[in-house]
Specification:
Oligomer: single chain
Helix content: 40-55%
Strand content: 5-15%
Number of helices: 10
Number of domains: 1
Low-confidence stretches: none
Number of strands: 8
Strand order of the largest sheet: 2-1-3-8-7-4-5-6
Shape: globular
Distance between the termini: 10 Å
CATH class: Alpha Beta
Length: about 300
Amino acid sequence: MIKIAYHPLYAHPLPEGHRFPMLKYELIPEQLLHEGVISADQLFAPEIVSEEIVLLSHDFGYWSQLRDFTLPPRAQRRIGFPLNAQLLERELRITQGTIDGALFAKASGLAFNVAGGTHHAGSDWGEGFCLLNDQAIAANYLLNKGIYKRILIIDLDVHQGNGTAQILENVPGVFTFSMHGEKNFPFRKEVSDWDIGLDAGTPDDVYLSLLGHVLPELYERHKPEFVFYLSGVDVLKTDKLGKLGMSKQGCRERDKMVFQFCKEKGLPVQVSMGGGYSPAIKDIVEAHCNTFKVGLDLLSPM
């Protein structure tokens, strides 16, 4: 059975001005259940990740400031909202959900996290609404436990996975790939193993053609045994923060290409949702739900 990480804290309201994007975390599982795409027993509520696991990827000084709520105001402004206990617990559960998802994917081939994709958090900083880097932590966990030796991170959020690149820059077992809007946040990019910066307004055909050429090359460069996929839907033309020119159908085709790649290569894949900031919440939820639908259609066990 394909498992999906979700906890009520995922939709925990942020301070004024940040509440709207959080609605999707409640609406995505509701919509999938309503349509009969998933069943309730596929959802699991992750626990809180341990400090020991966090410290595989984040510096103790930064982590202790988060844990003890002593993060300086300037560092909190970089994250984008004031730190509090519920937000930290939310991030800790999201991270454990991605780790659990990776372990579930090892058995079933696929797992999802309704949230996650917190790729702007570096080893000693938070940024862009990200406190801890869920997929980087999960990748280091898998390596540390000897579960996999070669891991590929496919980051197709519209923003570069700068924190992921920085945390994993000296980890030869992980290959980081980010395809993102070049003239977009973060304006100070880190160096992934392979970065592709796209022009503003890049349409479906250009994006998908490029991705189609890249995926086989990623496999040849690293011969991965496992994939983490960050499937942000802020690539949509309607997205307020994205600046690309993709349609919902193009975004769905993007997901199909990634899942088909994983299927053909026999690669288990854990999926974290990443960003999505279109003005209409229905566009965000539909695009994210399409990711679930395509993945389940292609990779569900027979």
